[in-house]
């Protein structure tokens, strides 16, 4: 993922306690290397959440998020986005993304992937692999397109980032959208992140915050999630049918085209002179 917090635990340094008096001729003990504090309960919570998410076969989730943009002056500007995601595993996905400046619609029906800019009517449709997981990898590798809320499909799998966690702690209990949630905080090399996981039989992620530590100003991404695990979207939800004012454009396989991929057009490019990277975490 991954995904960054406000306040996290400081690194725990292991000290060496010396019993008795050290003789003058003996060299001083070597300084202890810092250790990372990982609370097993925090890691187990991620494992349980990931297992539950993988077990969902059909669901919808709405996310409201904010991404901080740090100006040259140091001032932070928050950019807002909403994502409405509908999923029917293993091969159907629909995402409606609205930001402060633009909107995007993503359709995947197990055979074709379509990215539409509804304000302009420009769209791209390409043949797609047979599963959501394969589509996420191919869309990013070939076209530079990162799906919104991509972490929901990675947690608990081989591609998640739990192996990169250096510190983990249980923060406490909060209420998110009226639901009682357990609050956890984690540290990795370049990011800090927090997650709030619903208590009870459905350990769904309700909120997460990511702080990017290797960028000036330590910008944050935050998202609140509202779930419907009983949703069963119909086939029509995932199928794109162009209207009379919609216009297809080509998209270049960046991996195959190399430098020529800089000339590739997305629906955004076409609108501007007539990727589309919609963050997950993206943040």
| Biggest β-sheet description | 12 strands, mixed
Nearest-integer average pLDDT? 82
| CATH topology label of the domain at 55-165 and 222-272 | outer membrane lipoprotein receptor (LolB), chain A
Classify the secondary structure makeup into a structural class: mainly beta
Poorly predicted regions are 1-26, 269-283
List the helices and strands and how they pair.
Layout: E1 12-13, E2 34-35, H1 40-55, E3 58-70, E4 76-88, E5 92-99, E6 103-108, E7 112-117, E8 122-127, H2 132-143, E9 167-176, E10 179-187, E11 191-198, E12 205-212, E13 220-228, E14 247-248, H3 254-257, H4 267-272
List keywords for this structure.
283 residues, mainly beta, outer membrane lipoprotein receptor (LolB), chain A, twelve-stranded mixed beta sheet, two-stranded antiparallel sheet, 4 helices, globular, disordered C terminus
Q: How would you describe what is shown here?
A:
With 283 residues, the chain is mainly beta. It has a domain at 55-165 and 222-272: outer membrane lipoprotein receptor (LolB), chain A, CATH 2.50.20. The protein is built from four helices and 14 strands. A twelve-stranded mixed β-sheet has the order 9-10-11-12-13-3-4-5-6-7-8-14. The chain has a two-stranded antiparallel sheet with strand order 1-2. The relative contact order is 0.22. Residues 1-26 and 269-283 have low confidence and may be disordered.
């Amino acid at each position: 993922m991954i995904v960054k917090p406000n306040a996290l635990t400081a690194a725990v340094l292991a000290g060496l306690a010396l019993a008795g008096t050290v003789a003058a001729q003996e060299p001083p003990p070597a300084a202890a290397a810092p250790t990372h504090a990982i609370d097993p309960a925090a890691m187990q919570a991620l494992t349980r959440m990931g297992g539950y998410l993988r077990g969902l076969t059909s669901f919808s989730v709405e996310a409201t998020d904010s991404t901080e943009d740090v100006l040259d002056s140091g001032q932070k500007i928050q950019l807002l986005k909403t994502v409405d995601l509908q999923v029917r595993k293993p091969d159907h996905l629909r995402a409606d993304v609205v930001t402060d400046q633009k909107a995007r619609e993503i359709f995947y029906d197990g055979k074709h992937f379509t990215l539409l800019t509804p304000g302009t009517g420009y769209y791209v449709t390409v043949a797609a692999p047979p599963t959501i997981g394969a589509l996420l990898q191919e869309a990013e590798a070939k076209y530079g397109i990162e799906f919104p809320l991509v972490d929901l499909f990675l947690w608990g799998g081989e591609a998640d980032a739990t192996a990169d966690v250096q510190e983990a702690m249980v923060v406490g209990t909060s209420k998110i959208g009226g639901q009682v949630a357990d609050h956890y905080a984690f540290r990795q090399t370049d990011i800090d992140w927090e997650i709030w996981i619903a208590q009870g039989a459905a350990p769904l992620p309700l909120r997460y915050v990511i702080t990017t530590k290797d960028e000036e100003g330590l910008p944050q991404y935050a998202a609140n999630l509202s779930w419907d695990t009983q949703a069963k979207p119909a086939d029509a939800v995932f199928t794109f049918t162009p209207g009379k004012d919609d216009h297809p454009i080509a998209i270049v396989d960046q991996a195959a085209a190399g430098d020529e991929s800089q000339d590739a057009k997305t629906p955004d490019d076409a609108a501007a002179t007539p990727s589309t990277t919609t963050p997950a975490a993206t943040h």
